[in-house]
TrEMBL record:
Catalytic activity: Endohydrolysis of (1->4)-beta-D-glucosidic linkages in cellulose, lichenin and cereal beta-D-glucans
Protein EC: 3.2.1.4
EC primary class: hydrolase
Name of the protein in question: Endoglucanase
A GO term, aspect molecular function: cellulase activity
Keyword Ribonucleoprotein applies: no
Residues the record marks as active site: H408, D459, E468
Keyword Signal: yes
Key words of the record: Carbohydrate metabolism, Cellulose degradation, Glycosidase, Hydrolase, Polysaccharide degradation, Signal
Family: Belongs to the glycosyl hydrolase 9 (cellulase E) family.
Organism, as annotated: Solanum tuberosum
Residue ranges of domain Glycoside hydrolase family in the record: 28-481
Length: 489
């Protein structure tokens, strides 16, 4: 038997050994509905009449007032009450990509998914409305993190932070450009005037990011670090923004920019990571679609990088930075491991579709990675999240019979305004933080940071790395769940 087939059989046996199924399969469409619903619980600003998570109320209605601008709206990134624009923009990009690639699989949840994108883009348009200035954060993170209070009672500093030509931030501006460009594709057939507005702004923001190169982690270090400090540099966001602008506009200038800057902006670096900080694997997968379809031979190196990314995260031959727990979960060092699980799985799934359409496979040494294998690995990660794991626990709140009850989330853990109308101050909320009781408000659809390398999970608020949900965990999961709701087997 040829070595590559021996390795392939071994890999299938390895993946199947990670089986903890309840036996009844999963309701992927229900999980999809809940994963989108989660974003309504993260909304900031004036809530709309069709708000479905009823325990939330209006919050942060004066954001931006100190700077003479309207910065209301947008999303809280996680369990705190700060609006960090860098991860918010990445969330919006990935929600848009989920819709672009899996629109036909989303079914009757498409309207809610589009609303989730628009809640992000409406804010990004406000943040970029002033020529030569981009607002990149609302709220003093240190002040916020010293309190445990629901957003409706928030009285911490709502300091506004910005970048401009003298204080550059190419990584956050590049990500905003990517988000606006990706979202313009989503709205192209739904609202052409809004789509054009998004694309026009994306072009301007990218031009700003490229002309005034520099890291916001340097110019705003004391405000954004260590929370969303860009450890990987701004170069990848410039390529990422250009890639999405090329996809949205088909303008040759962006393709030429990608070719010209591929080496300068280090397209092949750290290929086995993808998230709010590091876009390299995503860039290579996104651009590879055209290469695989034979439309962009001058971008062949991106497909080579994408293939290398695939090989670097396969079970059994993984790079040391990508491990698998005994239960089969992807594990990478750092905070909130589930962000890696959903983002990397999203890339596996999208690339498998690109490979299928091009009738292509990925050679990985003695093994050949087929599109079917990549889908199998991605589905295994989704099933782990939904309950097929050693804890027999769904890591999505509200899905399945057993899920986290004490998530690290202020609004979820403090009694709602409806249940407790009197204000609950900064330090008064500590009582609820340390309480052993379940959270009084269920944040349906929230996916927590998840278990560690040994598959253990402490369902307790103080363990924020494991128990805190984030928007950028759910964004790529929307695409995954959409696909598997249409292709459960």
């Amino acid at each position: 038997m040829a070595p590559k087939y021996t390795s392939l059989i071994f890999l299938f046996l390895l993946l199947n050994s990670f089986s903890y199924s309840f036996g009844g399969g999963h309701d992927y469409h229900d999980a999809l509905r809940k994963s989108i619903l989660f974003f309504e619980g993260q909304r900031s600003g004036k809530l709309p009449p069709d708000q479905r998570i009823k325990w939330r109320r209006d919050s942060a209605l004066h954001d931006g007032a100190s700077a003479g601008v309207d910065l209301t709206g947008g999303y809280y990134d996680a369990g705190d009450n700060v609006k960090f624009v860098f991860p918010m923009a990445f969330t919006t990009t990935l929600l848009s990509w989920s819709i672009i690639d899996f629109k036909r699989n989303i079914g009757n949840e498409l309207g809610n998914a589009v609303k989730a994108v628009k809640w992000g883009t409406d804010f990004l348009l406000k943040a970029t409305a002033k020529e030569g200035v981009i607002y990149v954060q609302v709220g003093d993170a240190f002040s916020d993190h010293s309190c445990w209070e629901r957003p409706e009672d928030m009285d911490t500093l709502r300091t506004v932070y910005k970048i401009d030509e003298n204080h550059p931030g190419s990584e956050v501006a590049g990500e905003i450009a990517a988000a606006l460009a990706a979202a313009s594709i989503v709205f192209r057939s739904l609202d052409s005037s809004y789509s054009n507005l998004l694309l026009d702004r994306a072009v301007k923001v990218f031009d700003f990011a490229n002309r005034h190169r520099g890291a916001y982690s340097s110019s705003l270090h004391s405000a954004v670090c260590p929370f969303y400090c860009d450890f990987d540099g701004y170069q990848d966001e410039l390529l990422w923004g250009a890639a999405w602008l090329h996809k949205a506009t088909r303008r040759r200038q962006y393709r030429e920019y990608i070719v010209k800057n591929e080496v300068i902006l280090r397209a092949g670096d750290t290929i086995n990571e993808f998230g709010w900080d590091n876009k390299h694997a995503g860039i290579n997968v996104l651009i590879s679609k055209e290469v695989l379809m034979g439309k962009a031979p001058d971008l062949k190196s991106f497909q080579v990088n994408a293939d290398a990314f695939i090989c670097s995260i396969l079970p059994g031959i993984s790079h040391p930075q990508v491990q698998y727990s005994p239960g089969g979960l992807i594990v990478k060092p750092g905070v909130c491991n589930m962000q890696h699980v959903t983002s990397l799985s999203f890339l596996l799934l999208t690339y498998s579709n690109y490979l299928s359409h091009a009738n292509h496979v990925v050679p990985c040494g003695s093994m050949t990675a087929t599109p079917a294998l990549l889908k199998h690995i991605a589905k295994r990660q989704v099933d782990y999240i939904l309950g097929d794991n050693p804890q027999r626990m769904s890591y999505m709140v509200g899905y399945g019979p057993h899920y986290p009850l004490r998530i690290h989330h202020r609004g979820s853990s403090v009694p709602s305004v409806a249940a407790h109308s009197a204000r609950i101050g900064c330090k008064e909320g500590s009582h609820y933080f340390f309480s052993p009781n379940p959270n009084p408000n269920r944040l349906i659809g929230a996916v927590v940071g998840g278990p560690n390398l040994t598959d253990s999970f402490p369902d307790a608020r103080p363990f924020f790395q494991e128990s805190e949900p984030t928007t950028y965990v759910n964004a790529p999961l929307v695409g995954l769940l959409a696909y598997f709701s249409a292709h459960p087997n």
